[in-house]
Specification:
The protein is of the alpha+beta class. Helix content is 28%, strand content 27%. The chain has nine helices and 16 strands. The strands form three sheets. It has a seven-stranded mixed sheet. Strands 10-11-12-13-14-15-16 form a seven-stranded mixed sheet. A hairpin with an 8-residue loop joins β14 and β15. The longest helix is centred in the first third of the chain and has 24 residues. The N terminus is likely disordered. The structure holds zinc ion (ZN). The site of zinc ion has 6 residues, from α4.
């Protein structure tokens, strides 16, 4: 007994030393591997699931901490804090998480959005580590589809030094989003607070502008993937219905920010919603639809792995996460 106990301890110590060394060697890892001598790194942030014949992999890009004050435009701070308390979340700040999707279908690898790249908060930027941990190579990405042009969705496409991260990918964008952000008149008339966002879009897309494929909402853009207009968060904000066999998934993009606030209170608008009332109308419509059809849903800013279902709750809705499964 004693001998077995000792050798098991030795084996465990050896294993954790190996994990620590491997983790420290990974370039671009966003999480500190050690804090005060205790390992704090998590397992890689990817999670696979299937919709019919389509395999989806949720890939996490860490988080950005946002003070709660001023975050919801049309609600009292006390009410926002109460919603956070009911969800057992802190009441001073919200950790906004980022989860993109990699889609394997028909022998092709498609990404929906790309995370923050090296342009986000220090607590973000884990995307590439997690993407590679899931067994993927950026060279193998055949298509990158963008839901909208906010920095946390597009900056992963191009590093700060200009490097294109997915050299072989075709790029597909909502036509309405392109029309808004690439309009030079709108860029120069933009208020000071939005100039950075316009510059960021140009930084990512200008070098490939002639090759970008624009798509209209309502069209099947890839086999089994249909784009649906969801304006309000941005003018061309788009969600995607993925259908295969009897499986149906609505990729909700930024229809809501954190579900504990905005699925629960769909009439609330986060500061990032460019047109608050339009975003709220879109949100109610889509949440009603996925509830009625019992569709599975994926949200960019829901807690990882950011996939579940929506049920009615009070005057709003609630998100019910899927059960984590080792079987696909
Ligand atoms: Zn976002």
């Amino acid at each position: 007994m004693q001998e077995a106990y000792i050798s098991r301890r030795a084996a465990l110590a050896g294993a954790s030393a190996l994990v620590a060394a491997t983790t420290l060697d990974l370039p671009g890892l966003a999480y500190p591997a050690q804090a005060q001598g205790t390992p704090v790194n998590q397992a890689p942030g990817f999670y696979r699931y299937k919709i019919g014949d389509i395999t989806l992999t949720a890939i996490n890009d860490g988080f950005a901490r946002r003070p709660l004050e001023g975050f919801v435009r049309n609600a009292e701070l006390a009410d926002v804090k109460k919603a956070m308390e009911q969800a057992f979340l802190p009441q001073d700040a919200l950790n906004i998480t980022f989860t993109t999707l990699a889609i394997q279908s028909g022998g092709k690898l498609t990404l929906i959005d790309t995370g923050n790249g090296d342009s986000g908060a220090p607590t973000s930027g884990a995307w590439m580590t997690n993407f590679k941990a899931a067994g993927f190579d950026p060279k193998d990405v055949s298509t990158v589809v963008f839901s909208h042009f906010h920095g946390d969705h597009i900056n992963g496409f191009r590093l700060k030094d200009g490097t294109a991260v997915f050299p072989n990918a075709e790029v597909m964008v909502p036509a309405a989003e392109w029309a808004f952000w690439m309009d030079d008149a709108k860029a120069s008339a933009a208020p000071e607070a939005m100039k950075g966002a316009f510059a960021g879009v140009r930084r990512v897309f200008s070098p490939i502008a002639k090759d970008v494929k624009q798509f209209e909402a309502g069209k099947e853009i890839l086999p089994g993937i249909t784009a649906i207009a969801a304006p309000g968060h941005t003018p061309g904000h788009t969600v995607f219905a993925a259908t295969s066999g009897s499986g149906k998934l609505m990729i909700m993009s930024d229809t809501t920010n954190h579900p504990a606030l905005f699925v629960r209170n769909p009439d609330w608008s986060a500061v990032f919603d460019m047109d608050g009332p339009q975003a709220a109308a879109t949100r109610r419509k889509l949440l009603d639809m996925v509830t009625a059809e019992r569709m599975q849903v994926a949200f960019y800013h829901a807690p990882f792995p950011a996939v579940g279902h929506i049920g009615k709750a009070g005057n709003g809705f609630e998100m019910v996460p899927v059960q984590w499964s080792t079987a696909l």
